[in-house]
Amino acid sequence: MNTNRRKFIQNAGLGAAALSVGAPSLAAVTRESADKDGQILFVGDNIAVANTAYGKVRGFILRGINTFLGIPYGADTAGANRFMPPQKPNPWAEVLPTVWWGNTAPQNMERRYANVYASFVDHWNYDDVSEDCLKLNVWTPAINDGKKRPVMVWLHGGGYANGNAIEQDGYHGENFSRKGDVVFVSINHRLGPFGYAHFGQAGEKFAASGNVGMLDCVAALEWIRDNITNFGGDPANVTIMGQSGGGAKVCVLTAMPAAKGLFHKAVALSGSSLKAVEKGNAEKLASYILKEAGLTYNDMDKLQQMPWKQYHEFATRALVKYREEMKLPMFGGGGGFAPVVDGTHLPQHPYNVDPAPTASEVPMLICSTFNEQSPSRTDASLEKIDINGVKEKLKERFGDKTGSIVDAYAKAFPDKRPIEIWSMIASNRQNAIALADAKSKQSAGVYLAWFGWQPPMFDNRMRAFHCVDICFWFYNTDLMLTHTGGGARPRKLSTKMSDALLNFMRTGNPNGGSLPKWPSYTSANGETMILDDNCVVKNDPDREARKAFV
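Below the sequence we write its predicted structure tokens.
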């Protein structure tokens, strides 16, 4: 499965966490901020105090939105809890300050800023790294007011190996919460070999180890079910949404029996997870980890107790050797640390032709971008490539089919230049369409979008790249400036998209806002909402081009 976003866009580079108290806000006209010289941040002993099942938490109010950062929804996952299903957090007696982000899950933190362009564009935010990472953030217009607002749950990208709930400024929930009068929740959970190393052969105790990262997400949803009413939210109206690896997690959650009933709508952006890892492959990879560490299945306690960086290093080396022996690409190819079809927590592949039945009544909104990969963003010379050059560049990936694929896309999109054809082929919609086709077999509606808005930066070479649409959905285009440039043009589209998302959260149908009528998707017609300065519905605009892949 090709779900590691950093390798997908072939960029790395992460930034430091920031509260963004002074960041621009699209819709910040509230009682507290109507006066431009008035106070907009409020924090104190009796401000933004809410109850949870484990104790009281204290946040702050920023521009009229109650904000709680780093609320524990599970216990520390280190030591004896490593590889185990998430445990409940320990209760606390005093009011817990929740005014700063929770720890990022363990992952490779080396050279996060190595690619300065990626660091600039995606403005990566990272905080302390620790196995005590089961924390969530809440933005809400009001607490303890008896109102039940729709709840948005954001699952971050980064494949199953990287990322966190504040990775980009566009992940902030303040503007969306205010605009739609909704509750916004984002979560951290275990990643990589901490969340998806399947040591089931060590015995029943470790039977869930290959899916504990997803069980963390289930635990967060259970926390929302049990506590979100205290934050002004409605536990009977929860939408899960993610992008890239987060979109894949959305798909997997829809196939997990433990998650059934904990959410009611689903949104997958640029992450269509059709299949998970086969149990046998996952078990073999786990055996490589033990071999690399010089241990056996009888030594699992030693694997649990060693420092996380040491274990991560063993697991990383094991993954390289496993892929070399299995002749798999380093990223993708159906292996690696990702959810496992273990027969229990994940009984089947989510959308391998037939959709999992567990979320048959859950409507789904699916979106991808025109240019998930934009080869020329930092290489202006590629703008001059001709169609033969494109064929040469794609030959290694598509082999003998390359010529017919390129010709098919050039015919389907005669207005696109060769560099754009290259980008669209590398960013093809095969998985998004397969997900929509599978989901459309169920009774709940499915709505398909294709985001084509082009940012006016890097001499117009950014195009509609992987991640760019996130801030549009969440009304954050003036906050995620390095994706949009800011201003009225992106804000106009963001207004339409966020309205549609809010309608979808409330009713399971995105219609009712300023977008054109958005029909539900059918395999016969391929109804697709094109999201751009001019939004239009087209019937499967790249269908003929995609046939060349078969």
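Residues 362 and 533 are 30 Å apart (CA to CA).
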